[in-house]
Amino acid sequence: MRRLQVVAVSAAVVMAGLAGCHPVNGTSSDGAGDAATTRATSTAGATSGGSGGSGDGGGSAAAKALAGLTVHPKGSMTGYDRLKFGAAWTDNNNDPGGHNHCDTRDDILARDLTGVSYKSGHCTVATGTLQDPYTGKTIHFVRGPDSTKVQIDHVVPLGDAWVTGAAQLSATQRLDLAEDPLELIAADGPANEAKGDGDASEWLPANTAYQCKYVARQIAVKAKYKLWVTAAERSAMQKVLTTCPDQTLPTE
């Protein structure tokens, strides 16, 4: 009888040890994905050209949305022209703020700056202060010769949008993409110019505290307009999102 009790206890100890040996689905207790699994999943997605798999950098809304984006190489810049996205800052769009009799640039300045004053009426922003998300600097905006200190950035550059699916959108859809508040943010002029048409694998804000929100906004835009990401872009986004496991998706 004593020998049977010893055997039973030993078996229980072995089973308990086995239960705690391996994290579920290759993730650690803090929700971060195994690096090798993430790389393998990303490569598989890029090879198949399909949507992302489980290597999404975490379980946040942003990470899940990224996992749902198609992974595909960039297309051709052939045919690209800024005018393919409509007239810059036109109020004639179907986005939030469209047809409000103020141009889109002033709409975004009014949204992103603090202490705003207007040149006349309620549209033309004359002055304000920007806490720049890209550099962390405080920039005092004054309309005039130095207005370019603050620029309105297309979070997904229009050139990048063109080669990741926007070339196949209708003219109306491209206009709405270019004027969508979700796609636009007031930012430091030199930082915006340095970014060019770079995707997340080629450029990220120097202000690391803003990188998660920046990537999440790019993902939200690409999901809304059914644009794809490259394998390198997706990998760069995943790397950023592992630092913010609760990152939400912006809606505007």
Characterization of this structure:
Residues 29-46 have a biased composition (Low complexity). Keywords: Endonuclease, Hydrolase, Nuclease, Signal. Residues 25-59 are annotated as: Disordered. A hairpin with a 6-residue loop joins β2 and β3 (138-142). This protein is an alpha+beta fold and 252 residues long. The longest helix has 18 residues, at 2-19. It starts with a helix and ends in an 11-residue tail after the last helix. It contains nine helices and five strands. The chain has helices spanning 2-19, 35-48, 61-67, 104-112, 158-163, 171-179, 189-195, 211-224, 231-241, and strands at 114-118, 125-131, 138-142, 150-154, 184-188.
Unreliable stretches? 1-57
Separation of termini? 71 Å
How would you write the strand order of the largest sheet? 1-2-3
Enumerate how many helices there are, as a single number: 9
Fraction of residues in H or I helices? 25-40%
The count of strands amounts to: 5
> Which structural category do the helix and sheet elements fall into?
alpha+beta
What fraction strand?
5-15%
User: Can you summarize the main beta sheet?
Assistant: 3 strands, antiparallel
Spatial extent as radius of gyration: 23 Å
Order of helices and strands: HHHHEEEEHHEHHH
The mean pLDDT is: 83
Shape: globular
Biased composition (Gly residues): 47-59
Keywords: Endonuclease, Hydrolase, Nuclease, Signal
Region (Disordered): 25-59
Signal peptide: 1-26
